[in-house]
Amino acid sequence: MVTPSQCLRFGEAQCRDVSGFFEEKVLRDVLESRGNFKKLVEVRGSKTTVEDVLKLFETHSIRATPVYELGPGGRKVYTGIVSVIDLLKFTTAEIFHSLHSDECAPPNLDKDDTEFLKRPVSEVLASGSDSVVAIHPETDSLRALVEAFSQHTLRALVQSSTDKSAQRLQLVSQTDIMRFMLSHASELPSLMATSVSTFFMPNPVVFDISHRTVDAFVMMYCKKVGAIGVVDECGILIANLSASDLRFLRAGNISDLQQPLAYFLFSTKGEVRAPLCCQPSDSLFDVISAILSHHVHRIWVVDADRRPVGLVTLTDVLRLISKSMSIVP
């Protein structure tokens, strides 16, 4: 975990530069740098099933969507943002409940109990998810959003125009902040030069590829992580399994979760795909560049034998920045 003393390695002046950068920039700057307005993919919570959302995620290659209900006059009222992490928690809990199994004990999938996939996604929000974050793009500094994102908030729903009648809502993510930072790397030289060894999370959660897929998702649920490293019998990192992989789950293939993880990876991705990796000596600039170019949200830290020793997520990077800003008067 990052501590203020680690930030002091930059020096007080460098920390002040980081703080100043995020204080001066506003969310509008991020939205403008992102380019063309993208139509929001959203769902009505009471009319859209869990399986429908999974299909939507796969079709649009997205990991989250805002959820709304209709208020007075047919006006949309946004009730939350449902993500693959929320669906992982909901799905795993429902499998345990339907099989009368203790949580975090390996469930025995002896039947295709898929009723939970037909439930409205509004129930996922009721069981807990990110709420809509109120951010004003014209006036709120980027620091406010960075601090929210450093506390495991992954996305924010914002009004991208001062014209409220336009209803131009956009979803802003941690990835958008990373892309903006990279485009302004010359203004953050000390931060970008930070070594991965100073802030990565050690002892990552790993899983043997020969074991059942359902147990891998159970491990994610119980360890409260969004991804696990997949290793072979020698402990070598060979793949990555994340909550996003649940996008392939359907009523017709839920029994595949009983198969070894290797089978699941081949059936859903066509291969066992090597994950993105880095060395402890790599810089933050290198890590962010690699994460963005590969369209992922994490990078595994490995030793010379490709054994996993740590993990860097976008939340870890944002937490580093937040800590840097917090020690500046």
Question: Unreliable runs, pLDDT <50, ≥5 residues?
Answer: 1-8
Helix-strand pattern:
HHHEHEEHHHEEHHEEHEEHEHEEH
| Helix percentage range | 25-40%
The chain-level mean pLDDT equals 85
Q: Tell me the strand order in the biggest sheet.
A: 6-12-11-10
> What is the strand content?
15-25%
Write down how many β-strands occur, each being a DSSP E stretch of 2 or more residues: 12
First CA to last CA: what distance?
22 Å
Number of alpha- plus pi-helical segments: 13
Radius of gyration: 21 Å
Shape: flat
- The helix-and-strand class reads alpha/beta
Give the biggest beta sheet. Answer: 4 strands, mixed
Task: Give an overview in words.
37% of the residues lie in helices and 17% in strands. It has 329 residues and is of the alpha/beta class. The strands form 4 sheets. It has a 4-stranded mixed β-sheet. Strands 1-2-3 form a 3-stranded mixed β-sheet.
Short précis:
By secondary structure, this protein is an alpha/beta fold. It is built from 13 helices and twelve strands. It is flat.
